[in-house]
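Lab notebook page, bench 4
Experiment: in silico fold of construct C2
Operator: M.H.
Input chain length: 353 residues
Purpose: comparison with the prior construct
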Amino acid sequence: MLAIDIWFIIEKVALIATIIGLSFFIAMYTTYAERKVAAWLQDRRGPNRAGPFGLFQPLADGGKLFFKEEIIPLTSNRFLFILGPALAMITALITSTVIPWGASYVDGTTNIALQVADVDMGILVVFGIVSVGVYGIMIGGWSSNNKFSLMGAVRAASQMVSYEVAMGLSIIALLMMTVTLSLREISAQQAGMNWNVFYQPLSFLIFLICAFAETNRTPFDLAECETELIGGYHTEYSSMKMGFYLFAEYANMFVSSTILAVLFFGGYNYPGMSWAVENWGVNIANVLGIVALFIKICGFIFFYMWVRWTIPRFRYDQLMHLGWRILIPLSIVNIMITGIVILRHEIIAYLGF
């Protein structure tokens, strides 16, 4: 019994280390990809000096942040000033623990789940962690003792709380169909191109818009708009504390893209997966499933970047109007329509038709 527990712990620790390392790597090279995509959209070259094709640019940027002078304002709250970026980064990483990265790896009679924690309420865990992420931004802005930082933090907090309501309501219609909160079960139900986006397109659209607002990405980046607030909630930060906030933004973009892929685009499922299992074996088919999941994630990350360099920033009143007066009513209407469709036979029988 003790040996089994030890191997279980080793398996989970190895999976956690892999996911954290992968998150760091993807967040690091997403900055490079964003600069390249921006250059492509603006007919420029982008970073091309550090290494071949500029591939070492993220390493150069990371080294620059690491060796820059660490400045903590004298009038700031020192403990909260340090806690803010740490909390933002921790919450960005924890969310990935409930995501199913692939089907189980089969080693003889042993199945190794490619998921750190397969909890029955996985989607609620995601929403709980995301809601805590607001505190990292709010604490950082308030503790800086800077009016512009505080205004950026207040904007970010009100924006994220507002759009969490619409995001939560948009998921209810999906959960009414899947009848489960487990992300692994939701992925398993979408086998064979039976993707939820075909049944809940409005839910997907609302969730996608809210994901932009939750990650503070353009056109919802009012918390960091340089023309009004200098640098936003992280104006007073430098060195690796600034790097933590930047990393948290890109890590959140990666995780939100993963959640979108899992909830609406089948997660690790792909066309012909059952055929691949029968002809090539379970493990090869599952490796292809992991590749398919990351292709979907890269597609959403590219969409994030495309929107950033295409659509101008909203005004704050437009942002609140979209969240409270458009997305929330649409989510409620979608819930009502979904309920009517699910109970259509009972409704018809009750009305006597």
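Observations: The chain is about 70% helix and 0% strand. The CA atoms of residues 257 and 301 lie 6 Å apart.
Next step: discuss at group meeting.
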